[in-house]
Task: inverse folding
């Protein structure tokens, strides 16, 4: 498309008019654009002196002295919106018959500025990109780009690949540790010449899994510290959710390491088993196991470290953030349902249900599980080792079977199970 513009008062463009300051406000700029004529006052264009049409020194490059008019070989439908931008004082609307990329190029050509471009992108529904400042120091800037922007250089891509590999390795190790063939057990002698075999939650320093975990933590700690010292904004760095996840992901290791060191130091000063009552031994053991299990569970957060290198996980995170209200309601109603189910099966109203009742619940819900597997599952969630499940432990047990269970069928099965109980929770079958 071809645009032609001519001044209504012809005058050599390279010579100042003797009365230019007075006549500029009344001068008209007219143009012929593919057969259509546009006309506007110069003072309208001069509202935006930083733009191409508003700055005489810039638009003079497109002046044709032979024709005594301006010539622009640009898209004609877009010029309606460009001219309206000057006439309306800054309102920019894309014509419906002009593609996005074409109109964006026209905005850049007429030099409407970053404010107009950002406003146009916002009106079109584009996500506003946050400004991410870079460090002023040259060395810090290179380090920051190396660890924070994988697309900035080849070395940055190598660092990103190493980081992803270490994250995946730590997740695989975390999963393998839970397999029965890799678990460690302790054998205790009792006072009646019997033995008790219990799972050892505290790893040994020479354990291969612990050594690999140590290597992964060294890399995570090194990466976090380097990024912190190279960060241009230390406060914003500490408030960023991804960096908080990085910190949470490495804390369990140091707590476990402190536990290992403390256990080795106390082996020389072991308290005789006879000096502790069975209740004290069970209480201390249950508390220690509960703490260690919670600490080990926190390591699951490492999988979120992959979102730093995955656009898909970032989109998933934004989706979950936008759906927090609905997810909160879902968890709330699920909690109420579990509370009702627990109260219905707690026939003796002691605040706990036994193994036989749990087996009955699972059987009525159509969950097939062997007695051995059931004992193992109950042992995992029974933190106090009482042999009965309290409500919090019952929720943990239900979570293991709710993942693959259809919600509607689960409601129907629970409803059928509740029919067997009367309002007082007494068994009628």
Result:
């Amino acid at each position: 498309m071809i645009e032609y513009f001519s001044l209504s008062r012809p005058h050599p463009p390279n010579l100042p008019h003797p009365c230019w300051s007075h006549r500029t406000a009344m001068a008209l700029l007219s143009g012929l654009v593919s057969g259509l004529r546009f006309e506007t006052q110069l003072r309208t264009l001069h509202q935006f002196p930083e733009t191409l049409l508003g700055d005489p020194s810039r638009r003079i490059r497109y002046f044709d002295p032979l024709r005594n008019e301006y010539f622009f070989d640009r898209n004609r439908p877009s010029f309606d919106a460009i001219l309206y931008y000057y006439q309306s004082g800054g309102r920019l609307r894309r014509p419906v018959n002009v593609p996005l990329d074409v109109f964006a190029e026209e905005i850049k050509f007429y030099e409407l500025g970053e404010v107009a471009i950002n406003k146009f992108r916002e009106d079109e529904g584009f996500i506003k990109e946050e400004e991410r400042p870079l460090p002023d120091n040259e060395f810090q800037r290179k380090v920051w780009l190396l660890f924070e922007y994988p697309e900035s250089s080849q070395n940055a891509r190598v660092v990103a690949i190493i980081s992803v590999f270490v994250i995946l390795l730590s997740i695989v190790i975390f999963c393998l540790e839970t397999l029965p063939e890799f678990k460690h057990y302790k054998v205790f002698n009792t006072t009646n010449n019997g033995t008790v075999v219990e799972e050892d939650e505290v790893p040994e320093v020479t354990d291969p899994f612990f050594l690999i975990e140590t290597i992964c933590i060294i890399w995570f700690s090194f990466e976090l510290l380097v990024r912190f010292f190279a960060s241009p904004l230390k406060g914003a760095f500490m408030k960023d959710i991804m960096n908080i996840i990085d910190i949470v992901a490495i804390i369990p290791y140091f707590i476990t390491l402190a536990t290992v060191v403390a256990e080795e130091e106390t082996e020389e000063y072991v308290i005789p088993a006879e000096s502790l009552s069975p209740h004290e031994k069970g209480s201390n053991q249950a508390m220690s196991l509960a703490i260690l299990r919670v600490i080990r569970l926190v390591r699951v957060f490492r999988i979120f470290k992959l979102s730093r290198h995955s656009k898909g996980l970032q989109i998933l995170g934004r989706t979950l953030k936008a759906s927090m209200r609905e997810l909160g309601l879902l968890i709330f109603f699920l909690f109420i349902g579990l509370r009702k189910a627990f109260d219905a099966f707690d026939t003796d109203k002691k605040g706990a249900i036994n193994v036989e009742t749990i087996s009955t619940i699972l059987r009525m819900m159509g969950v097939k599980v062997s007695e051995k597997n059931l004992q193992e599952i109950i042992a995992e969630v029974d933190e106090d080792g009482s042999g009965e499940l309290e409500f919090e432990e019952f929720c943990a047990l239900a979570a293991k079977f709710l993942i693959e269970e259809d919600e509607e069928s689960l409601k129907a099965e629970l409803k059928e199970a509740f029919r067997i109980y009367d309002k007082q929770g007494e068994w009628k079958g």
